[in-house]
């Protein structure tokens, strides 16, 4: 199932919707009629079309409205042909429901709950008994593969009504919600071809903000972001945070896509202007913080480089002078940096030779001890061998001093 979902996404350029597609594929495979519910512009039609194409079935579309009667759905007799030949299959003009049934194809009904109840009821026998009765012709039976895929907007939208319980009972229900912000950005990029991420990000954020505003009953879908993106490009030669330009574009794009609350006292233009100003201010603040962060990181990096360069010079000077005590001091002060310098600048061997051939002194012993943890296994073994020899030399020197006779005056 997941393989089929990926195939549909890639072939029909659907972004996201993995769970919804998986449910829809399961429903079609089980020969169940599907009812998609979601707000306007959320991609219901795109998914329905992709399903029909994926299963290689023809597709008959009906757009529901209050004037769509049952005769348009099932078919009608041509008056001129009836006068000449009478009532017969030859004079009957099949509607989309009849065509889908006789072909074994998909009947896609967009916005089912905008249809009159009488028209909706025609679907009951087709979905339940897989046949309908056409007066003066008789029964029309559905071939295998016939399926109804319908969409509906939530009941609170103007012009919609609840479908009957009997009809609702024949469907399986799949809910489509707004997609994530990143998915909507990808959709806007795909639909507009815009390569300016900043423009897309701002447009999507403005559209999404309309869904949260207390004075807006129904916010804009991703179509709002798509329109803003397409409109802002010819009006602005380059990326700009000019509130006047963005506000004008947003009002053009969103005024037909949002619905205000009945009790609001604000004008639509003022609400959109406030949303745009808020989004642009946030975007400018984020951009400023990122720029400051980059500056701080750059400064810190430069400080580290300067420190490493200074430490490298001091280390080389100490090694050249044979000053093991100074090497130990530098290592204790900044062990990580000195370890990297010793290994990266090939000074490790120089340090070992100095420790091995110097007079048996405690700085040599201390240096070999403190460098152990920062070495790779091979170098650690070499250092340990020299350390052991150095300890023996120091021990022999101590024993030799103890056995020496006191000089008597």
Can you lay out the helices and strands and say which pair or pack?
Blueprint: H1 2-12, H2 18-29, E1 33-37, H3 44-54, E2 59-63, H4 70-74, E3 75-77, H5 79-85, E4 92-94, H6 96-103, E5 106-110, H7 117-121, H8 123-128, E6 131-134, E7 138-141, E8 147-152, H9 165-168, E9 171-175, H10 181-192, H11 197-209, E10 216-218, H12 222-235, H13 243-254, E11 259-260, H14 268-321, H15 324-333, H16 335-344, H17 348-357, H18 362-370, H19 377-403
Parallel strand pairs: 1-8, 1-9, 2-5, 5-8
Antiparallel strand pairs: 3-4, 6-7, 10-11
Q: Could you characterize the architecture of this molecule?
A:
The protein folds into three domains: 2-175, P-loop containing nucleotide triphosphate hydrolases (Rossmann fold); 181-290, Helicase, Ruva Protein, domain 3 (Orthogonal Bundle); 322-403, no CATH class. It has 409 residues and is an alpha/beta fold. It has helices spanning 2-12, 18-29, 44-54, 70-74, 79-85, 96-103, 117-121, 123-128, 165-168, 181-192, 197-209, 222-235, 243-254, 268-321, 324-333, 335-344, 348-357, 362-370, 377-403; strands at residues 33-37, 59-63, 75-77, 92-94, 106-110, 131-134, 138-141, 147-152, 171-175, 216-218, 259-260. The radius of gyration is 39 Å and the shape is elongated. A hairpin with a 3-residue loop joins strand 6 (131-134) and strand 7. It has 19 helices and eleven strands.
Features:
single chain, 409 residues, alpha/beta, Rossmann fold, Helicase, Ruva Protein, domain 3, 3 domains, five-stranded parallel beta sheet, two-stranded antiparallel ribbon, 11% strand, elongated
